[in-house]
Amino acid sequence: MKFSVIIPAFNAELYIEECIQSVLDNACHDIEIIIINDGSTDRTGDIINSFKDDFIHKIHTKNKGQSAARNTGINKATGDYILFLDSDDKLNKKTLHRLLEVISESKADVILFESDVFFDDELLTTKFNPIYERAQSLADKALTGVEFFKTAMNENNYIVSPCLYTFKKEFSQDIKFKEGIIHEDNIFTTMLLLHNNPSVYCIKEKLYQRRVRHGSVMTQKKGDNHLNGYYACVSELINNPPNNHLLAHPEYNKFLTHMLDCFKYTNLDIARQYKDEMRQMQIQHESEINEIKSHISALKQSSSWKITAPLRKIKDIIKK
Hints:
Layout: E1 3-9, H1 16-24, E2 31-38, H2 44-49, E3 56-61, H3 66-76, E4 81-84, E5 90-91, H4 95-106, E6 110-119, E7 142-144, H5 145-154, E8 165-168, H6 185-194, E9 199-212, H7 224-239, H8 250-266, H9 268-271, H10 275-295, H11 301-307, H12 309-319
Parallel strand pairs: 1-2, 1-4, 2-3, 6-9
Antiparallel strand pairs: 4-8, 5-9, 6-8, 7-9
Helix pairs in contact: 5-6, 5-8, 7-8, 8-12, 10-12
């Protein structure tokens, strides 16, 4: 069983060596580490090049963003399972060994795990307290991707970070990160779980160490980049759902509604610029729903109110 650990890196000279070393400390014999230097202007590239192991593949590209870097890593990967690691984060020393055990026992296509959080600055501990723990109801169970998604949404515990999943390489063939936006994880992880309905297994073990620092996405002030990201995610998941049947699922609508709320409250002044686009998306979504209704007998009056929930949220945004 071979793991492909994909590490996109941009101006990460303070963290990248520690990040790579955390993978090497796992002492896993069947592994490749794919590091994509995404046009860094500091010493990141030099630090990456200092690692001479044959199983470490170093790719230096122009700056295209994290999504493009991750896609490059996916295309390069030759392992059976893919694992993402951000350049300022770390793996635990037994992460890969434990994942190998779980894969061998469960035979699951996707394995889900949890994360510890550590802080660069003690002051951040009072401002940010991200939680990466999944609901107990999801632990140590073999589920389908759809079953997991529904349960996680109903428990208000759906975590989209792809760094907390490892999955079979074959499931990335039709799924890539949407480039040029942030919050792209919302699309990728949702498609991963729902597109081919893989078998999933969730463990309540913290195998990942997430760093919270000044300047990271978690600590940045919300602005138009965040707004663009939420808008792109909602548009993509409405116009190109993993499958059309999901539009009838209240959990899928709940997820879309959550992102619409994020879109709405990220910056109301900027949100007004998107009125026309949101109206057009509303019209298109209504047309899709009508088509689905005509082909699926189960989607009748009792479902219609749930199906149009995202549209009502869109209308709320437009009215503001």
